[in-house]
């Protein structure tokens, strides 16, 4: 009997470093570091920790380890004009329904400070929690 052809829905993901891990709704998913000199930051993290990068243009480089999927990014902010009390790494959560996540963040007392907006890879928004911590939420659509 001939083997049934695999469709994208039934095919298994390849076991390669490029394969993305499964994303979980509202789980910690990605960490972004804001930098003022992207080439210098890339050199530093490559030399210090062996990080490798996916290039997304002059203002962004995805972070991945040797033989590992992308887990974060270096985001260029030449102005470095972060509001008082904000800054440092940006933690990103994954969402299966970005618009619903915007609503639940607001309902829970968070403040949306950017977006939703499109970015390479989908859409996202940023919010602050009641203590002033800024986080982001992303979705592929």
Q: How would you explain this protein's 3D organization?
A:
The chain contains 2 helices and 8 strands; from the N terminus they run βαββββαβββ. The chain is an alpha+beta fold and 141 residues long. A hairpin with a 5-residue loop joins strand 7 and strand 8. The longest helix has 12 residues. It starts with 27 loop residues before the first strand and ends with a strand.
Write a brief caption for the model:
The protein is α+β, with helices and mostly antiparallel strands and 141 residues long. It has helices spanning 38-49, 98-107, and strands spanning 28-35, 52-55, 60-64, 70-76, 90-94, 111-119, 122-128, 134-139. The chain has an 8-stranded mixed β-sheet with strand order 2-3-4-1-5-8-7-6, with helices on one face.
State the total count of DSSP E strands: 8
What strand line-up does the widest sheet have?
A: 2-3-4-1-5-8-7-6
Question: What is the structural class?
Answer: alpha+beta
The helix content is 10-25%
Mean of residue pLDDT? 80
Strand content: 35-45%
Counting H and I runs of at least 4 residues, what is the number of helices?
2
Q: State the shape.
A: globular
Query: How are helices and strands ordered from N to C?
Result: EHEEEEHEEE
Distance, first to last CA: 40 Å
Biggest sheet descriptor: 8 strands, mixed
Low-confidence stretches: 1-17
Rg on CA atoms, Å: 18 Å
């Amino acid at each position: 009997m001939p083997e049934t052809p695999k469709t994208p829905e039934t095919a298994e993901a390849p076991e390669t470093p490029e394969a993305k891990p499964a994303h979980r709704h509202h789980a910690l998913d990605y960490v972004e570091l804001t930098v003022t000199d992207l080439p210098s930051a890339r050199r530093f993290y490559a030399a210090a920790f062996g990080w490798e990068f996916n290039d997304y243009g002059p203002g962004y480089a995805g972070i991945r380890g040797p033989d590992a999927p992308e887990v974060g990014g270096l985001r260029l902010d030449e102005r470095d004009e972060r509001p008082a009390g904000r800054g440092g790494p940006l933690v990103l959560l994954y969402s299966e329904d970005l618009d619903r996540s915007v609503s639940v963040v607001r309902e829970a007392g968070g403040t949306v400070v950017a977006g939703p907006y499109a970015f390479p890879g989908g859409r996202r928004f940023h919010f602050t929690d009641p203590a002033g911590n800024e986080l982001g939420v992303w979705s592929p659509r």
